[in-house]
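In this section we walk through a basic example: taking a raw amino acid sequence and producing a predicted 3D structure, encoded as discrete structure tokens. The instruction is simple. Fold the sequence below.
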Amino acid sequence: MTQHQEQNVQQAPHAGDPYTVAVARYFEAWNAREEGALGKAVGAACCEDVTYTDPLADVAGHEGLAAVIAGAHVQFPGHVFRQLGEVDGHHDIARFGWELVSVADGSAPVAGFDVIRLGEDGRVRSVLGFLDRVPAV
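The resulting token sequence is shown next.
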């Protein structure tokens, strides 16, 4: 198998591909509720020097990202983050849609998509987030 063929095999979408695995761990972090669980989930999903930038936040490191996640939980109690559609990835970059869903009634007041860059160990190295739907203020 040539190097090009090996790269194509590694980039083929399936349940165990590095993009899907990384995004699943990322959602575990965003849905972790307990403080200890949140820190562990962020550490499992992200490189130590992870950067996270969206229209409302620009932070770095595990603590910075954990604070953003905790803030979302405070602002939207009783909501969980859910992936929309499939993960699309190539090289060390992936993109995916998501929405924030109420466990009580299934409404989804917030939705967007993220573009992530993976580190060599498969954890998220950077996140660029975009908001497609936000509640009126």
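Looking at the output, two observations stand out. Confidence is low (pLDDT under 50) at residues 1-14. The chain is about 35% helix and 40% strand. In the next section we compare this with other chains.
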